[in-house]
Amino acid sequence: MGLKRSSSSLFLSFLVALFLVLSNSAVVCNAGETSSFVRREAKSVDMPLHSDVFQPPSGYNAPQQVHITLGDQEGSAMIVSWVTMDEPGSSEVVYWKEDESSVKKYAHGKHKSYKFHDYTSGYIHHCTIRKLEHDTKYYYEVGIGHTVRRFVFTTPPPVGPDVPYTFGMIGDLGQTFDSNITLTHYEKNPRKPQALLFAGDLSYADNYPNHDQHRWDTWGRFVERSVAYQPWIWCAGNHELDFVPEIVTIFPIHVVVYNSFRKE
Ligand SMILES: *[C@@H]1O[C@H](CO)[C@@H](O)[C@H](O)[C@H]1NC(C)=O
């Protein structure tokens, strides 16, 4: 009995604490309702392979599926990833601060590839650039030596108790016509999110026979237009598990946490 009473008062103080936390956070992060967008209910159809959003960039061995994510917990490093198809090419990233284009820096990365059933991936590059300044716009180039492509990102502000920074959030994106509308909608948000929290289930390639990995490549090309310019922070969903015991005995997981949406 005594035990029961003390646990219920404990529960009450928990509720009070929870209320305080929630009411406080309502003041601190007043996100409000940012959109009236509601996705239509009709079944979503995948965009066909010849769709504009899936087209690879032109040029010999041009880097494609370029994407960035945070490279440390302080916001002073960025991991740049991309895929080349013709040959490995360079895993180097050239980068510079917006206002110091004469001071170019170089970072060296690595590449790897993987096989899955009858699919062989391109050369998947990862390169971490470190010691970046906060709140700073950087240009970066990949494809050094072949077809060079240039992108830009801004680093987050220094870590602190009250730092304004706007996150977007997307989950279950896939590659349907509606996925494209969702991404367009995100890009047009007037609040200009600076990084995206991705809640898992990226490409839905596993909906295809033998989990057709080409649909990871199309997905990577589709989202490049956002993720090459601002970090997306990943978490894995069940669709990242390639459990197909009929064709592969060891099932790989697309490692989306931390550095890449590609298999490692
Ligand atoms: C995807 O959206 C972009 C931007 O709105 C548009 O330019 C493009 O044509 C769309 N592609 C498809 C296949 O819906």
TrEMBL record:
EC number per UniProt: 3.1.3.2
Keywords: Glycoprotein, Hydrolase, Iron, Metal-binding, Signal, Zinc
InterPro entries according to UniProt: Calcineurin-like_PHP, Metallo-depent_PP-like, PAPs-like, PAPs_N, Purple_acid_Pase-like_N
ATP-binding is among the record's keywords: no
Signal peptide range in chain numbering: 1-25
Cofactor(s), names only, from the UniProt record: Fe cation; Zn(2+)
Domain Purple acid phosphatase N-terminal: 63-155
Official protein name in the record: Purple acid phosphatase
Species: Linum tenue
Lineage of producing organism: Eukaryota, Viridiplantae, Streptophyta, Embryophyta, Tracheophyta
